[in-house]
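[job 0412] stage=complex_fold ligand=iron/sulfur cluster status=START
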Amino acid sequence: MPEEILVIGGGPAGMNASVMLSEIGVNVTLVEKDSFLGGNPEKFKYKFLFPDLQPAENVIGELIKKTGNNSKVKVLLNSQISGFKQTGNKFDVAIKSPQGDENKIFNSVIVATGFEHFDPARDAKYSYQLFDDVIDIKDLEKMLGEGKFLRPSNGKPPRNVAFILCVGSRDRHVGNQYCSRVCCVVSVKQAIELKEHFPESDIFIFYMDIRTYGFFEDLYWEAMEKHDIQIVKGRVAEITSGPDNTVVCKGEDTLLRGPFEIPFDMVVLASGMEGGPQSLEMADKLGLEMDEHRFLKPRNITLSPFRSNIDGIFLAGACTGPKAISDAITEGAAAAMSAHIYAQKNP
Ligand code: SF4
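[job 0412] stage=complex_fold status=DONE, emitting structure tokens
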């Protein structure tokens, strides 16, 4: 029997796993709940990827093409896993798709169910959804991607914009104690994009700590030195309405140790990453362990971060924790290799 591997999730990790497996001649079935491939980058139309600001189309678009036009990869969109049981070393899986219900035996499984953006409406102090001009980084990414970045309230260019970091991350109050890893660099990247678009605008970033890790630190310096973006260590405690259709950020500058109250045309919230309901559902259906942060738990985070607690089921991408797209793509390749080795050893 030819080797058959199931990939659950069609984001960057799941797509790259599928493409890698197809290149070594393995048959893949990719099950995706949405009506499109590409995951969150496609859903929210990410425009440029950090650190080199290359068009997302070059990466995500390319993966979508390689996955979708691939005779070895059967893509099932709008589909879900409706039944799952282990039979010996293999997996008997029921799939519900618009093409009909089917049962199939797979040699191994890769779970790449991704993440959800934190919903800032859960924290009332940010007034998200209360004021049109308070948006979050995924909203801004979509606007940038569509090339129509203007104030939602009046359709005019913003004169000044504030970014607020760590929204829904590093915050016990909302139940997310962890750092989401990428929102600092995404915010800095977006601030640069805005400044290039509106050179006359004043842009502020309010931060607890700037965590532009590794080579992404270059963007941080570029933002300050080349684009004159103001990076302020401080916490915003409240967003209220202000004069002349502005939104006011009230908080404390923790370096100067004094309060501030500044009206802005727009506020962008750097909402973090959370494990999505898809991961929870897969944990339940497949018997996977979850960690205390509600992400899927690798068997050994250091030695084998893409192996789950069940032999033959592998994990890839942001379903195991916040990470950059490049890391998710790398994990997709690693999980593909592990799933293939398992299938070869357990024919
Ligand atoms: S990456 Fe930055 S903005 Fe995101 S949670 Fe970590 S410190 Fe906060």
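The two ends are 9 Å apart (CA to CA).
[job 0412] exit 0
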